Amino acid sequence: MAGKTVDVIVVGGGLSGGLPAAAYLQKAGLQVLLVEANAELGTFCCTHETWPQVLDSPHVGVSFAGNSPVIADLELERYGFRFAASPVVLATTYRDGTNCLICQDPERTAANFGRHSGRDGQRMLEIQSRVHETMVEFNELSSFSPHPDPGRLPRVFELCAYAMDYPVEQMMEMTGPELCERTFESDACRQILMTPVAFWEHGAPFARGQGALGTTFALYYTTGVGIGGNEVQVDALTRCFLDHGGELWTSAPVEEIVVDGGRAVGVRLAEGALPPVREVHARRAVISNVGVPETRRLVGPGTLESADPLLAAKMQYWQMGLRGSHVTSWLLDRRVSWASSGFDPLIDDAILVYRAFDSWEGTKQYLVDMLGNDTWKASGQLMEFTYPAPADPTATSPEGHTIMRAEECFPYALHGLGGPEAWDGPLRHELVAARNAVMSDLVRDWDDSVLDYYDWTPLDNWRLNRSAKFGQVVGGDFTEDQWILGRMPYRMPVPGLYMSNGVWPVGLSWMAAGYNAAQVVAADAGVRDQPWWVARPCEWYEHNLARLLDRDAAASQAR
User: Fold this and answer.
1) Virtual torsion, Cα 353, 193, 149, 478, nearest 10 deg
2) What is the pTM of this model?
3) Assuming Cys at both sites, which of 57, 239, 242, 491 could form a disulfide with 79, CB separation 3.0 to 4.6 Å?
4) Residue 509 CB partners (closer than 8 Å, separation 6+)
């Protein structure tokens, strides 16, 4: 194969998979070329001025980077990464004027839960204390180890069972809703555990075992926000990669992953790609960060069928249409005050808040409506709000304007509503109008505070990023057969080909997919043993939490 030669080619510069993999391997001494079809990296972590002088991160409104060892290993603060946290890790707000808060301090969480039920407050204190005790080990085994690895799962399940105080055998028999019902007596306390799970990011909630374990996973998140917008994370990784000698090509769509003699040996760029070189050879590895359907197209289905017919069939029918993201950004003329702040005022300091149904039965019905492809029934029931202003001083304009971001997940197909093309019609505005009606009940003076809005449908998201087929931004649905061991392997059956999208864990801002892909490639290339590659998950966050919560420190970083 003629043309340029490097050690590793990374196809796709996403924040979760491609970019961190490239940075780790370059720092480990390999010669890495990162090729990105778009004009910039981290397409779904962009920060821009949707409106003048107000920063908007529409697709990654909150960052889970605190879970990651990447910040310490790659010294991202040295490269400009700035981060802030909130005393509230996760909040839910209800139309009855109450809220539920999971806080950094377990005692504070228990006080909030205790207002709903004294028994639930004590129960949550015990659970969150055990979560904190096992935070590092759990994240290391479940998220920062390259799966599929059945040897890791027994201990992961044991940690979940320990945190929730049930035998593993009972956990394996329970669905997500059953776990919440057995654990808490208050509907509000049950619902807060189900909110991330109902977004279909941890597995199928109604699957026995998988549902209960996936619900527990949600307690092991950290949350925060990049100061100056979450794109600071992309910028810091890019600087690190380039500082260690990495090479970056943007506006460089790949036409083909070249396989010769049964091995992935390089890539061929599409006609019209900006770089002058059309073909690049890889001595060690080609890492695909463009998702399952696109990887199948680039490699060619015949190649995959020859290597592993079962995996090739799974890739052909990879499910992507369950949870397309529909995102709205609102420009507000003031800081948000939640209507439920009278119940617990600390919610006004939260940067991650969910509108979480009107009843426990409504929670379970939402899951049914999602599975039934009923977009209108699912509308308005569950919304994820990210609001950086309480933590990030740069998120407020000189006039006091701020931005609230809301995400809802809908089935892409729009059965009975005109099919997928209906996303380009009046439906998008009708859904936002329905969203606004709910917001009027959740936020004080909502109608008076909204100056403007902009929305992105699942179809818009797919146009923005070819790996996000059907608007699916987390690498494929989390149905029962596409969970942990059912995800794509990091080391593909075609020698020399690796994946960092469609793998476990879900692609998010904690960068676990790229970290794991780098581990596998580095081990195969004999360069994994590095004195700097030693950080453990969550330790940077835990050691720096007081600073991350300090508003004066955040303001100083912003300057």
Assistant:
1) -70
2) 0.97
3) 239
4) 15, 16, 45, 60, 63, 64, 65, 230, 233
